[in-house]
Amino acid sequence: MHSINKTKTWLAVALLAAGGAAFAQDALTEAEVRAKLEAQGYTKVNDVEFDDGMWEADARSADGNRVQVRIDASTGEVYANEQVANLGKADVEAKLAAAGYSKVHDVELDDGVWKAEAEDAAGKDVELRLDPATGKIIGKARD
Questions:
Q1: CA-to-CA distance for 41 and 59, rounded, in angstroms?
Q2: Architecture of 89-142 per CATH?
Q3: Closest CA relative to residue 136, chosen from 80, 98, 82, 84
Q4: Is residue 140 within 8 Å of 127, Cβ to Cβ?
């Protein structure tokens, strides 16, 4: 009876080890993780480590903030520990220029949305709020 339990235990260990080896073969490499992060706009990616079945890294988001991210080892899906903007300052300036605003200045991410000051087509100074993901103007007030 004791021998059967030992056999079952060793069989379970062998199956777990084989499953772990199969998972390791399917997992992203560190180079692939870095490439995925950079493709999503992250820069200065460092301290990339595999921990608890996920990749972890420190990086800068598109808006320049330092963030910690976790990456699904098999799908590459990125989970930021903090909400970040998809657009950078240059993206916001370009979107406002394309929408007819000039003299764009004081562009900053404030309370989760982009804020900027500019001159509208009529030459009036305005303060604008933009969606951090799309750059859509979500608020406009005379400055």
A1: 10
A2: Roll (3.10)
A3: 98
A4: yes
Q: Which fold has domain 2-80?
A: Nuclear Transport Factor 2; Chain: A, (3.10.450)
d(C-alpha 70, C-alpha 57), whole Å: 7
Quick one: which H or E segment has residue 98? helix 89-98
Q: CA–CA separation, 21 vs 39, rounded Å? A: 28
User: Are 109 and 91 a contacting pair, CB within 8 Å?
Assistant: no
Average pLDDT, 10 consecutive residues per value, the chain (143 residues):
51 44 67 94 94 86 85 82 77 96 93 86 94 84 84
Instruction: Give the start-to-end residue ranges of the domains of the chain.
Output: 2-80, 89-142
